[in-house]
Amino acid sequence: MKKIGFLSFGHWTSSPQSQTRSARDFLHQSIDLAVAAEGLGVDGAYFRVHHFARQAASPFPLLAAIGARTSKIEIGTGVIDMRYENPMYMAEEAGAADLIADGRLQLGISRGSPEQVIDGWRYFGYAPAEGETDADMARRDAETFLTVIEGEGFAQPNPRPMFPNPPGLLRLEPHSEGLRDRIWWGSSSNATGAWAAKLGMNLQSSTLKNDETGEPLHVQQRKQIEAFRETWKESGHRREPRVSVSRSIFALTTDLDRAYFGHDRNSQDQIGMIDDTTRAVFGRSYAAEPDVLVEQLAQDEAIQAADTLLLTIPSQLGVEYNAHLLENILVHVAPALGWR
């Protein structure tokens, strides 16, 4: 069995060819798609977070709205860039959204990816401390966030408060019990995967990964997952961790499917530079008739190793068509692979 969710990058454009022409369209359609996906039996609705772009951002209003309209589906991110976050305020927002969703949040956080502007987090008022990199700052704030959502008091109460306080040090409110176990780290390297395991975070293996061995992405990810689980075991955590991988997978069952994806040109891993020094391997897309797709996916070692698969969706094609794509996987692919 495998949990299957969708991952939306949240693109919108005013192009006449787009079904998602504004931020309003994206937000309302995302809520509607999550409702439709829950009805189909999809396990999760996840959203990327980018700033200074016509894509999803400020995730907590959207997560809370989906939580209020659904009852079973997991609601998450993949990922929140911690370089842009105040970990204290984020803890309050996450606690509130998780309570609205009755404990269904699955928050992916990370140091982020290359952004639309140079050092965009500086415009938000954040900067690394002396001797830190922006990645160091992100990991420091992630650790602060993890600590405060555990619910232990840490703040000295005012001796003359406006409202009565409970005894002892105060914690951030609202607090949502169990949220700490539902935080994921989006990792593009073996080292950060191991770091996440030590801190007791679940693992989101990215759609791109630092090319550390020259092997295909799915092989490098499988080895990353194995190293993550081994470090988790060595760290002595009491629960079992979760691991997700993301893929673009399209089962071609109609002429429209074939028109959109039948000539997919990304059927092989791609190599690129994500900054001046980091070579990365980008995952391939899968687009084929269901029986062919089953054979191809059975060979993807990372998908087999993960317990959760996030299907990236073409958000600009609208709610109805994306629900059709998800149903194709659930009906025509997942049972043959033993995922359902």
UniProtKB/TrEMBL annotation:
This is Alkanesulfonate monooxygenase SsuD/methylene tetrahydromethanopterin reductase-like flavin-dependent oxidoreductase (Luciferase family). InterPro entries: Bact_Lucif_Oxidored, Luciferase-like_dom, Luciferase-like_sf. Residues 9-251 form the Luciferase-like domain. One of its GO terms (molecular function) is monooxygenase activity. The keyword Oxidoreductase applies. GO terms for cellular component: cytosol. Keywords: Monooxygenase, Oxidoreductase. The keyword Oxidoreductase applies.
